[in-house]
Amino acid sequence: MTMKEILAEYLACPIRQVISRFGDKWSLLVLYALWRNHPGPMRFSELHKLMTDCSQKMLSQTLKRLEKNHLIARKQFAEIPPRVEYSLTPLGESLMPSITSLIQWGQEHFTEVTDGKVAV
């Protein structure tokens, strides 16, 4: 296969295109946090408290990417100090059964997959 054919195959692959939109660890954690808090929205600081190992910059980038991909909604209030809240969109909500199934599978098979070792 030529590089052009490989690229065309990659771009046409639905699973690669969809998973690339939320498949990183921070996106999954944000989606799960918002789902656990559902139907209430969450503020940036609330999300960051749950994900202390995620930098503010990375969390901000993740939220922007999820909003761009229509999985979360961002609501900004005209207040001083400014207030911004995040929540799942209907599309994001429709993804959660799959994510919660993956989490359950991970809990059931954690030791087998990690050999009892946690990545740092």
Structural features, described:
This protein is mostly helical and 120 residues long. The chain has helices at residues 3-12, 14-22, 25-37, 44-50, 56-68, 90-114; strands at 42-43, 72-77, 83-88. The longest helix is centred in the C-terminal third of the chain and has 25 residues, at 90-114.
Helix content range: 55-70%
Mean pLDDT across residues:
89
**Strand order, sheet with most strands:** 1-3-2
What general outline do the C-alpha atoms trace?
Answer: globular
Strand content is 5-15%
Largest sheet: 3 strands, antiparallel
Encode the helix/strand succession as letters: HHHEHHEEH
Structural class: mainly alpha
Distance between the termini: 37 Å
- By DSSP (H or I, 4+ residues per run), the number of helices equals 6
Q: Which regions have little confidence, pLDDT < 50, spanning 5+ residues?
A: none
Integer-rounded radius of gyration: 17 Å
Number of strands: 3
Question: Care to give the gist of this entry?
Answer:
64% of the residues lie in helices and 12% in strands. It is mainly α and 120 residues long. Helix 3 (25-37) crosses helix 6.
Offer a few descriptive terms.
mainly alpha; three-stranded antiparallel sheet; globular
Describe the secondary-structure layout.
Layout: H1 3-12, H2 14-22, H3 25-37, E1 42-43, H4 44-50, H5 56-68, E2 72-77, E3 83-88, H6 90-114
Antiparallel strand pairs: 1-3, 2-3
